[in-house]
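User: I'm designing a mutation panel for Cyclic pyranopterin monophosphate synthase and want to avoid disrupting the core. Could you give me a predicted structure to guide residue selection? Please restate the sequence first so the numbering is unambiguous.

Assistant: Good idea. Sequence first, for numbering, then the predicted structure tokens:
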Amino acid sequence: MSDQLTHFDHDGKAIMVDITAKPATHRQAVAGAEVRMKPQTLQRILDQSIQKGDVFAVARLAGIMAAKQTAHLIPLCHPLPLTSVEVDFTSDPAAGIVTIRASARVTGQTGIEMEALTAASVAGLTIYDMCKAIDKEMVIGQICLLKKTGGKSGTFERNAG
């Protein structure tokens, strides 16, 4: 295995990185996202009066399921045997903001960041889908890696601010 991991072979063609020689380590990643909406939309979510049902329960399930399918969604991403995926929500009703926090864990040879980011993204998209009939102006954003531990590159933690 080369010291330089790359998605290109010696001819410049796309390949899946060969991780054969990398040791399996415990890895965790936490990603975040934010959905901004009208305060009255968020209040309806909190009151569980959205016609399609419990928005957070469905978005949580969608995020977990998406994390498990990351290798099918992101080109050249390795399929990983996830050991845990969690998706949680906090809200600021006055501002109309839902904050999503997704965590994924694995013991494996390669990173887990994409699974956490996929979970957070799909959870946000699901919130949009379930509420778009009453608020098409929602904005999904601030999708980012918040924390990562394990693997060759060590620990990463996003600075606040």
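For picking mutation sites, this is relevant: The beta strands are 25-36, 84-92, 97-108, 139-149, 156-157. Helices lie at 39-46, 55-68, 70-73, 113-131.
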